[in-house]
Amino acid sequence: MIRYHRNTLKKLLDQVKFASKEPYLNAEVWKLVQLNIIKKIISLENKVRDKKSEKKDLNILRKNPSQKLTKEESIKIKAKIKFLENKLEEIRFVIDVYRSIGDAVAFTFISKLDIKPQNFKESAGFISEKIGLKKEIEVFKKIYKEGMIAVFNDITSVLKYCDLAVVYPGGFNLIEVKSSKLENSRIPRQKENADKIVKYLETDKTDNLYGIQGETIRVDLNSDEVNYIEELNKLIISSKETKNATFEVEKGTYYFVSREFEEKFMEENFKHLKNPIMISLNQYKFSGQGYYPFSLSILDSNDYLDFISGSFIILIIIDLEEVENYCSFKNYDLIHSDNDRYIFTIQSQENGSSAGIKISDHYFFRSCTEFVSLKWLIDDSISQFEKMKITIK
After folding, report:
1. Does 127 lie in the same domain as 213?
2. Where on the tree of life does the source sit, at the highest rank (predicted)?
3. pLDDT score for 159
């Protein structure tokens, strides 16, 4: 089914990549791209309803005690149900691809550090089921008519609070569009949650965020992010000729792009690693974790569509022994954690010190899903920790 939508998806993504070069000079492009995505998602949602209805009718027929089916009829109905289930998977997949382009719009204008806290909430569901959809689109168009730029939050997988985000150089405002004067029990709760996120984005402090009890405080990075997106895209290009391409982006961290996976290639290139872990990014295509989207990291639109279609795989291979050595060089120990929320603790080697930096799964996997330097992540974490110790003293 992705093949049927491929030309449309490529056109939309090419428009996003073109407009992102000078984002605030291309308002009309952003408006049309998003309106097209809304239209496509609604059409696909209607297809989901149709297929689910067909499946429901078949299940009723199959289980109807007053209408005894022959074995052949039962087999045919089960096969049709399986076919419909596969079609539903395909349709939902294509919806995810369109939303990944919506994510590209959002991440073009809003810092990923501001997007992350807006992501950890259940999706609102189908756009076409929203009572206030018509009003939201009217407000969306009005914002553009007045010379501003807005992101329609429901076409993304990450902006889950409020309806629209009005963006401008240096910031953004979240807008909740009221469709009527009617009130229900959900409205005050939605407003309270939205206010909590807005407070966090404005003050860097809030209470009970993500269901975690107590105050949450975020701090600035100590240095500019280091990433290897350029190296990744060179490997993707190289793999078109060599089928398998790998590169050690920093000591102990390898990127590997494969179009024809070969065990022999893996053995020849990675047998020397002492304690390797391997992460396949193909399973993170639509992770729902608020990471910087592959629709932006993979620079060529065709390459991105090939990746999500499974034409090639991207593996990140990390030798944990090298990570341990690097931490030791910094006078810290890397300790594996049994805690569900933390994968490692980076603990100071100072005599008698039990203080350490807890590294969450989400933070660690930025080195894979966002192609961020793992050594930079460690350095920045240690710098924050050292700064905190100085402040406490």
Report:
1. no
2. Bacteria
3. 94
